[in-house]
Specification:
456 residues; 31 strands; Immunoglobulin-like; 6% helix; DUF2341 domain-containing protein; Jelly Rolls; 51% strand; single chain; membrane; elongated; mainly beta; 8-stranded antiparallel beta sheet
């Protein structure tokens, strides 16, 4: 991501002429060979007061500039930012860059992300961490095409395998797993903030959400892919290696529904239900939703914002109060506007079980159940899968991914869903509720070898 700060710039005819004259004569006085540099198409002036770095060539590409920088000093330098003035808009921008170390006498490329426009002039100033500077004025006479996100040092092709799927998948969420065996975490930011994904053109960004980032172990990332062809494969790209980049992980943009309970809105009380934002028990972030008082079907529901069919998955983390004595079933799921649908039921009374709820006009009937261990006062992970085949599956896991149990039934009664719900007993907490698409079989992903920019 470009880190930008703006301040007003002023360009007058007199000052511009003075800048060009002083820049050219000062540069030639210091480096006679800059006369050759000024003969390059598009380059209007150059100024090298620091006697440490010079730009030998400039290439304007889609998304910014590629500068070929030589260290003409006697010690290594580190370039970490650029400043750009657009004569047309009279604006000044600071662009923070991934650090580039250039040894004495060495030439390296420096990518400067910027919204370049044909026919415009830009003043570009490169600086080093030691304060050295090189300035030039460049007119963009040509913009080269590029299939690379400017500012990123590395990328990996990700192959999505849908050869076993008979249907084209649209706006489909795929899971990418990184481990210390298949990914070099040292080349990315320690928090994964510089991770980006693009479509197969290498440029069009894709929405993604980092569920877990562990530079010493396994990371899980979900990416929303616009189109995955049937009975075929699809290539997308994962970029990394851009230290100034801020995270663009975005759950709401990635999934069909996403609520981490951090911003409380949209939950509608049903019956005498009491569901509210709470800090007592939290899976991640600062808040969760607590279901308190009154038994099922009292609770709350929230609109998904669209109508979904079957082949969907609902997932959430739940945590039951071990001191509860009444209405001991946790119930979350998907319903239509009339209260018809399916859900996960995890009951803690007597012999604990995981089951499938079928709801008609909000009232539940447990269609299937499997007896499992009773986990209270700890977070567990619940998943509901509603398949087009008619199968409805409930699954339960510990928060570390350990499988607890599952239950399934066949029911084709309902096929459209508009709301998620939190019903059941009290009191228990729900956090990080998402809805994503499902396919059978699910497409798989694999990482290709590491690539670097074509200009590096």
């Amino acid at each position: 991501m470009i880190m930008v700060s703006r301040s007003p710039g002023t360009f007058t005819i007199v000052s511009l002429m003075l800048l060009l004259v002083v820049a050219v004569f000062s540069a030639v006085a210091i480096y006679p060979w800059l006369v050759d540099l000024l003969s390059e198409t598009g380059l209007k002036s150059a100024y090298a007061p620091s006697k440490m770095i010079v730009v030998e060539s400039v290439n304007a590409i889609q998304g910014g500039f590629i500068l070929y920088v030589r260290n003409v000093g006697g010690v290594p330098v580190i370039i970490d930012r650029a400043y750009i003035e657009s004569y047309a808009s009279e604006s000044f921008e600071e662009v923070k860059l991934s650090q580039t170390v250039i040894k004495a006498g060495e030439v390296k490329t420096v990518a400067v992300p910027y919204d370049v426009e044909l026919g415009k002039q830009y003043r570009i100033k490169l600086t080093t961490t030691a304060g050295s500077m090189f300035s030039l004025v460049y007119e963009v006479l040509e913009i080269s095409s590029a299939n690379w996100l400017l500012g990123w040092q590395y990328r990996r092709a990700i192959t999505i395998d849908n050869t076993g799927g008979s249907s084209t998948l649209t706006d489909f969420q795929v899971k990418v797993i990184l481990t210390t065996a298949n990914f070099d975490y040292s080349k990315a930011n320690s928090d994964g903030s510089d991770i980006r994904f693009t479509d197969e053109d290498g440029k069009a960004k894709l929405s993604y959400w980092i569920k877990k980032w562990d530079p010493s172990g396994t990371s899980e990332i979900w990416v929303k892919v616009p189109n995955i062809p049937a009975s075929s494969t699809k290539t997308i790209y994962m970029y990394y290696g851009n230290s100034p980049a801020a995270s663009e992980s975005n759950g709401p943009a990635t999934f069909e529904f996403y609520d981490d309970m951090e911003s409380w809105s949209g939950w509608v009380k049903h019956g005498s239900g009491v569901v509210f934002q709470d800090t007592t028990r939290v899976y991640e972030g600062h808040y969760s939703a607590q279901k308190d008082l009154y038994c099922d079907p009292n609770g709350a529901y929230k609109s998904i914002g669209k109508t979904l069919g079957r082949n969907v998955v609902l997932e959430a983390y739940i945590n039951r109060n071990g001191s509860s004595v009444n209405c001991l079933c946790d119930r979350i799921g998907l319903i239509d506007n009339s209260g018809n649908g399916y859900g996960v039921v995890y009951c803690h009374s007597g012999s604990s079980y995981i089951g499938v709820d079928v709801r008609t006009n909000y009232s539940p009937v447990v269609q299937s159940k499997t007896y499992v261990s009773n986990y209270v006062d700890t977070w567990v992970f619940a998943r509901l899968t509603i398949k087009s085949s008619g199968d409805v599956v409930s699954e339960l896991y510990l928060s570390d991914g350990t499988f607890v149990g599952s239950s399934s039934c066949t029911n084709n009664t309902y096929s459209s869903f508009t709301n998620v719900y939190i019903f059941g007993g009290y009191n228990y907490w729900v956090d990080l509720m998402i809805v994503r698409k499902y396919a059978e079989p699910m497409p798989t992903t694999s990482l290709g070898s590491e690539e670097t920019p074509p200009w590096s």
